[in-house]
Amino acid sequence: MIVIQAKLIFLNQQAKQIVLDLMRRWSSCMRFAYNRLLEGEKRADLKRKLPQVFNLNSRYVDDAIMKARSTLESAKELGKSPRKVIFGGKKLFRKLQKHHLNGKAYKKLKIRWQEKRKGNLYSRGDKSKKGNLNTRIEVRKNGTFLRINVGERKYVYAKIEAGYKKNKKRKELLQEIANQTYHTL
């Protein structure tokens, strides 16, 4: 498995907005699942109910539940109260609560916190399905793209602008991604 940080460059503003909406719905689903898990609801019940509530496919919902469960277990392992988890970061939230900032600085901080809170999308692959059905890397003549499932067999494509790994150039990194993609498809 290769893990990299990459910048996604959307082909148009509409595609970007569609993915931002997907990220917002997924993040909301994960927070909702977290709270229902705290109340003792079962994963199977959540998996049946949440696709209609958040307009997400069952794979995105299952990943949101899994992420919520891991956050819940992590809080318990660290000896912290799971009821006091703050999505978006406790430090940023506390800074917002203090009201020591105003005007542009406060708005900028609030946007940063909301991006951390709502700007998530987690999607894992399955070997039996030949990889990830929601997000998939595709290599084309004009670059390497991430295909993002936005619902009902509709996809948005974003060009991947890879970051750098130690001692590797951008072109080498994209080639490594391409080679890994061919092996997993």
Question: Topology, pairings included?
Answer:
Layout: E1 6-10, H1 13-38, H2 43-54, H3 58-77, H4 90-98, H5 104-118, E2 135-140, E3 143-151, E4 154-162, H6 170-184
Antiparallel strand pairs: 1-4, 2-3, 3-4
Helix pairs in contact: 1-2, 1-3, 2-3, 4-5
Describe the protein.
This is Transposase. It comes from Thermoanaerobacter kivui (Acetogenium kivui). The longest helix is centred in the N-terminal third of the chain and has 26 residues, at 13-38. β2 (135-140) and β3 form a beta hairpin. This protein has one domain (6-110, 118-183). α4 packs antiparallel against α5 (104-118). Strands 1-4-3-2 form a four-stranded antiparallel β-sheet. It contains six helices and four strands; from the N terminus they run βαααααβββα. The chain is 52% helix and 16% strand. It is an alpha+beta fold and 185 residues long.
Structural key phrases:
185 residues, alpha+beta, four-stranded antiparallel sheet, globular, disordered C terminus
Briefly summarize what is shown.
This is Transposase. This protein is of the alpha+beta class and 185 residues long. The chain has six helices and four strands, in the order E-H-H-H-H-H-E-E-E-H.
Proportion in helices: 40-55%
How many strands, what sense, and barrel or not for the largest sheet? 4 strands, antiparallel
Order of helices and strands: EHHHHHEEEH
Instruction: Work out the helix count.
Output: 6
Shape: globular
Number of domains as seen in the coordinates: 1
Structural class: alpha+beta
State Rg: 19 Å
Summed over residues and divided by their number, the pLDDT gives a mean of 87
Strand share of the residues?
15-25%
Terminus-to-terminus distance: 13 Å
pLDDT under 50 segments (min length 5)? 181-185
Protein name: Transposase
